[in-house]
């Protein structure tokens, strides 16, 4: 029989927490109903919310754009291109051969200059700190188009590297530093020719080394496009201008070990000086030596090239018992001294022409015994034999006054001190040449041109002296 519960126990049961009591669980129907309601609300409210959000975003963007258009300071502007650029100070000395030092047109080291290209002139710029510059080789076809605008990326893409298995294409001082706006490039040379790329030409470029300068972009420098030939070609190249002691095959149309070269060597004409002396004393003989294989056009080209030769400041004296004659390095008569009297050019016409010609022939035959003199005087420099432009054909590297001639044969009033480069002297198309000198011959094949003048310093037109005339 069960014991009767005490009242105290009954009270304690009533004081127990509610959570210990069993909670009612929601029915399946109520859960499904709530889910359906939520889905309905999302479906109904989504279009409304999208429309409201779009309207607010469009309104906000419109306000922003209108504020940008009203305030110029807030507009986005493209950066202005830099006006700083590297340039090469002078052009290259051409042609260029592998293994040969690369120099500028004056034979000096290449120089890179930093300039500001703003305006019509390039103004040198002094950077606040030294800038390192890399020297590279570029494809000769770069840049395309107008050639004025390129990016750093385009420049880098056109850098030419060496062929597989070859040495670096360019060797030497390939990293230089710009100080005070200028950088001199030491000895650099090509190790390979340019025939293997499509353009068959290279350029030398200069670019700021990566990390060397943190300011605005400095545009790269580049030279003109040029061909690089193998060094073996240099052994056969012509000289411009030729020197007196150059081998005769350095002249145009006379190839080394060719037919003309062999004929001249057989007759003792080995140097450019030998060639010019014979062309003055006996041009007909020189023409016969070369033979019919040398056409008139080839002959003219060879003679024209030879006449650009630099004569220097040496002259030669031929002395006898009662005479002394002065000749320049190619056997042209400068002055004659007979029986103690000096005969300037305007008095030579009164002398026995055969006697003068005989003395010049003797001097030519005994050339190795003639006395050499240095530092030709101003008087001798003016008594130049040959046509009236002989001073232009045979420039003298002395510090003397050179008077230039007009095509009509008159002297100009001005004067030029020192040496004038050959390229500034013209092509000689206006030279006046004595027809007798070119076409007239005598039994000895000897002719002599002497400038006449009314004084020791004034030169006029030449008079041709021909034996037996």
Automatic annotation (TrEMBL):
GO terms for cellular component: nucleus. It is found in: Nucleus. Residues 243-309 form the Calmodulin binding protein central domain. Residues 84-231 form the Calmodulin binding protein-like N-terminal domain. Residues 315-373 form the Calmodulin binding protein C-terminal domain. One of its GO terms (biological process) is regulation of salicylic acid biosynthetic process. InterPro entries: Calmod_bind_C, Calmod_bind_M, Calmodulin_bind_N, CBP60. Keywords: Activator, DNA-binding, Nucleus, Transcription, Transcription regulation. PANTHER family: OS02G0177800 PROTEIN (PTHR31713), PROTEIN SAR DEFICIENT 1 (PTHR31713:SF42). Belongs to the plant ACBP60 protein family. This is Calmodulin binding protein-like, putative. It comes from Theobroma cacao.
């Amino acid at each position: 029989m069960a014991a009767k519960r005490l009242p105290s126990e009954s009270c304690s049961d009533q004081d127990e927490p509610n959570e210990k009591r069993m909670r009612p669980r929601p029915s399946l129907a109520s859960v499904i109903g709530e889910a359906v309601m939520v889905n309905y609300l999302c479906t109904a409210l989504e279009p409304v919310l999208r429309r409201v959000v779009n309207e607010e975003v469009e309104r906000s963007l419109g306000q922003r754009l209108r504020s940008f258009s009203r305030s110029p300071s807030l507009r986005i502007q493209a950066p202005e291109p830099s006006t700083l650029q590297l340039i090469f100070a002078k052009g290259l000395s051409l042609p260029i051969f592998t293994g040969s030092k690369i120099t500028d047109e004056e034979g000096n080291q290449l120089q890179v200059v930093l300039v500001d290209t703003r305006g019509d002139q390039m103004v040198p710029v002094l950077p606040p700190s030294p800038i390192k510059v890399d020297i590279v080789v570029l494809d000769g076809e770069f840049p395309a188009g107008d050639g004025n605008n390129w990016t750093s990326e385009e420049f880098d893409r056109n850098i030419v590297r060496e062929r597989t298995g070859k040495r670096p294409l360019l060797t030497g001082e390939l990293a230089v530093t710009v100080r005070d706006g200028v950088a001199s490039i030491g000895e650099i040379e090509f190790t390979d020719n340019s025939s293997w790329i499509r353009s068959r030409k290279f350029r030398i470029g200069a670019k700021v080394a990566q990390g060397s300068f943190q300011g605005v972009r400095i545009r790269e420098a580049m030279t003109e496009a040029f061909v690089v030939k193998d060094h073996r070609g240099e052994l056969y190249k012509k000289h411009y201008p030729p020197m007196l002691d150059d081998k005769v095959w350095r002249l145009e149309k006379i190839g080394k070990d060719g037919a003309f070269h062999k004929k001249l060597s057989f007759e003792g004409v080995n140097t450019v000086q030998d060639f010019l002396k014979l062309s003055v004393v006996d041009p007909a003989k020189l023409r016969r030596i070369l033979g019919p294989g040398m056409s008139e056009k080839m002959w003219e080209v060879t003679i024209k090239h030879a006449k650009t030769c630099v004569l220097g400041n040496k002259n030669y004296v031929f002395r006898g018992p009662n005479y002394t004659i002065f000749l320049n390095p190619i056997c042209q008569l400068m002055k004659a001294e007979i029986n103690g009297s000096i005969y300037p050019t305007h008095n030579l016409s009164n002398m026995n022409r055969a006697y003068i010609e005989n003395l010049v022939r003797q001097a030519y035959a005994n050339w190795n015994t003639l006395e050499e003199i240095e530092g030709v005087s101003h008087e001798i420099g003016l008594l130049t034999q040959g046509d009236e432009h002989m001073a232009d054909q045979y420039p003298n590297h002395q510090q003397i006054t050179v008077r230039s001639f007009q095509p009509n044969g008159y002297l100009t009033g001005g004067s030029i001190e020192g040496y004038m480069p050959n390229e500034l002297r013209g092509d000689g198309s206006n030279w006046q040449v004595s027809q007798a000198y070119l076409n007239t011959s005598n039994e000895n094949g000897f002719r002599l041109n002497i400038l006449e003048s009314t004084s020791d310093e004034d030169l006029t037109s030449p008079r041709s002296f021909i034996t037996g005339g």
